[in-house]
Amino acid sequence: MTDAATSHAELVSGLIGDRADAWDVAGELPRDLLVKLGASGVLCAQVGPEHGGTGLDSRAGGELTAWVGARCSSLRSVMTSQGMAAWTVRRLGGAEQWGAFLPRLTSGDLAAVGFSEPGAGSDLSAMETEIADDGTEVIVTGRKVWITAAHYADLLVVFGKYRGGATAVVVPARAPGVRITRVANPLGCRAAGHADITLDAVRVPADHVLGGTGLPLPLATTAALTYGRMSVAWGCVGILRACLDAAAAHTATREQSGRVLAEHQLVARHLTELYVAERHATRACEHASASWDTGSPDMAVDAVHAKYVASREAAEGAARAVQLLASAAASDGHVVARAYRDAKLMEVIEGTSEICQLILAQHIRKPAQHTRRKVQP
Q1: What is the DSSP string of 182-244?
Q2: Interval 254-302: pLDDT, tens
Q3: H or E stretch at 147
Q4: Where does residue 341 rank: exposed (0-12), middle (13-18), buried (19+ CB within 10 A)?
């Protein structure tokens, strides 16, 4: 990690300590912790210094994300949400909007990004939220579901239909007409503040509409989703590292039939597969971050690939860790039990594994179709 990333990692480690399991059981992160991390730049570390951030590149930001993810996936989820909000403002907004919103996200305000709706999960084209012009204001009406960090948010970056296309609008979480309802007992990332959002004719200034115009829906949403997929992928690397550390420590000390578990061949196989999973996920993330940092045209598909690989490996790796630790990891309050639940959720958020497969399959077909067209007589 870079010096800045290392400094952030040390701050995170000091603030988390051994409290992550208790936060998971309670389903709540301390707000003062989130505000402190937000003000330090940790929650959206890729924002540039000109707006109060540290300007980490994708590789350094990814390693920091993995560091946080190894310690607390709920906190990493809030970090993903904050980074997505900042990246959306940066990609869709103009210079005045960068100056208005980015410094807030690096000085302690918290943000959530609203995509999913009751009838628009994987199929975002079914989105029904409306952003309607009304003079110097816009009126936002709709409902969003399972929005990470919405429980903690000061600002909501809401995607909706606008001027024949789609865009995102920044909505104060306490604006009249906004109702935020906590999701009860989520499977994973229990302290990440998942919530449903109802927007009942919410009025906000027209200059809160990022970019001020409607865009094709895929263009509007891909900007934020690509960042989110990168962050989730690196977070899954963190989950794998936590599981590997816990499994290695347990099997090196626990004895069975007169030998430590790690000396049994079947146990050694599980440990090996867990190690290979962590290496596989890390390499996929490193490749995607290199695409991001070099501005590769394959950046979006490489992010999908990294998210697909890392989330799959994390879910399978966490299951291996449970198998290795057995009853020691079978109760709330244990890092592996937490990882097992959190990792499964990673196969669903920011594009399910099946959606990732479809995107990757389409990417495979495109160059093949192009080649076939070129050789036809």
Answers
A1: EPSS-SS-TTS--EEEEEEEEEEEGGGBGGGS-B-HHHHHHHHHHHHHHHHHHHHHHHHHHHH
A2: 777 778 777 788 889 999 999 999 999 999 999 999 999 999 999 999 9
A3: strand 137-147
A4: middle
